[in-house]
Write a structure and sequence with these properties.
Elements: H1 19-26, E1 33-37, H2 42-48, E2 54-59, H3 62-77, H4 80-87, H5 94-102, H6 110-118, H7 120-125, H8 132-156, H9 162-173, H10 176-185, H11 188-195, H12 209-223, H13 230-237, H14 252-260, E3 264-269, H15 272-278, E4 284-288, H16 298-311, E5 312-322, E6 337-339, H17 341-350, E7 357-363
Parallel strand pairs: 1-2, 1-4, 2-3, 4-5
Antiparallel strand pairs: 5-7, 6-7
Helix pairs in contact: 3-6, 8-9, 8-13, 9-12, 10-12, 15-16
């Protein structure tokens, strides 16, 4: 029986967002103080690669913050190839991964080291693919898709011609069964299962979720090469297919930048809304809030936004994503939190994670 004192295993172990979109929206630099939802830690690390002055990473789930500690420690300690092997991106024995993990003890808090020692099987298997969310893709979605469309997807992930990819998608995959599968498969019940967290206050504000997902899939297969899309690779194949298709934080350039960063990284386990109520005035110049709207009610979300003008520096930049919810900046805050509509539209078109709608704004500008 699991030790009750050990926090639940992580929900997210790698990113289901396109960090390149985030970086375009936020333009973090050396003088910025960033408030960032930890999540899988991937966005935090992509922002850390920009070498801001300080990052405050916050999550209510201790395991997600421990994962950030683990990833920072591994990036600092391991050479690039060893890092990819440790995370599970490239082949390595379980014994070697465990031996590598043990060398990280001095670089992590006692709580984080003990947490991963308890979940040692996940470390040995390659932690990047082992979150509860990721296991859905590894063990269910990817095998199912390859059973139905294996040859077509193989060809799609090999081509470097977007017109060839579109032809494969629309003529070999997107038939009546694909449409039925997407339309009937993307339901509230399924998404609650994928989100897999009893503490989420999930609100559904899309009338026809299946049709929305079908449209976004049509768009992404028509505009983004699957071969270079890390999220598509993870979703369809249950893994990253090579170094040409990995999350931003795992690129060699980001790896080198993170290792060189002198950024002060503060990691806090707390409720985001409650934290903002007690944060000091004018503390932050960048807010990276992920798809927080999928996790909290609109009432709580408005509480969160109401605090941002107080704790923001003049001209602070905000980015968050909407998915199943459509939480907008309330009208009473629009003078202080000004939506950057052109940026939102551009990212909604170019984002490679395809299911999100962006909200980008300037605060106290």
């Amino acid at each position: 029986m699991k030790n009750k004192q050990v926090a639940d295993w992580v929900l997210y172990s790698t990113c289901d967002e396109d960090a390149y979109s985030e970086l375009k929206a936020l333009r973090a630099g050396p003088h910025d103080h960033v408030l960032c939802v930890t999540g899988s830690a991937c966005r935090v690390l992509s922002l850390l690669a920009q070498q801001p002055e300080k990052i405050t990473a916050l999550d209510f789930a201790p395991g997600q913050n421990y994962l950030l500690e683990l990833k920072i420690a591994a990036i600092k300690a391991f050479e690039y190839s060893q890092l990819l092997e440790f995370f599970g991106v490239e082949k390595c024995s379980e014994a070697q991964r465990w031996a590598d993990f043990l060398t990280l003890q001095s670089l992590m808090s006692e709580e984080a080291f003990n947490y991963f020692s308890h979940y040692h099987k996940e470390i040995k298997a390659g932690v990047l693919y082992r979150g509860r969310h990721e296991k859905f893709y590894v063990y269910f979605l990817s095998p199912f898709l390859h059973l139905l469309y294996g040859k077509a997807f193989k060809a799609m992930f090999e081509t470097e011609d977007i017109e060839v990819q579109k032809d494969i998608y629309f003529n070999q995959i997107r038939g009546p069964f694909w449409r039925l599968m997407i339309k009937k498969g993307f339901t509230k019940g399924l998404l609650k299962g994928i989100l897999n967290n009893k503490d989420y206050e999930t609100e559904f504000e899309i009338d026809d979720l299946g049709e929305y997902m079908l449209q976004t899939l049509d768009h992404t297969f028509s505009t983004h090469l699957a071969k270079y899309n890390d999220w598509l690779s993870m979703m369809v194949n249950g893994r990253y297919l090579g170094r040409h298709a990995m999350p931003h934080f795992l690129s060699r350039d980001s790896y080198n930048a993170i290792r060189a960063a002198k950024t002060d990284v503060e990691i806090i386990t707390a409720d985001l809304v409650e934290y903002t109520k007690t944060a000091k005035e004018h503390s932050f110049s960048v807010f990276s809030l992920s798809d927080v709207s999928s996790c909290i009610s609109k009432t709580r979300f408005n509480e969160l936004l109401s605090q941002l003008p107080r704790i923001s520096q003049p001209g602070a930049r905000l980015c968050y994503r909407n998915f199943i919810a459509r939480h907008k900046v309330p009208s009473n805050l629009l003078e202080q939190i000004k939506i950057d509509t052109p940026m939102c539209q551009a990212l909604n078109h170019s984002d490679r994670a395809f299911s999100y709608q962006f909200e980008v704004a300037l605060i106290n500008a």
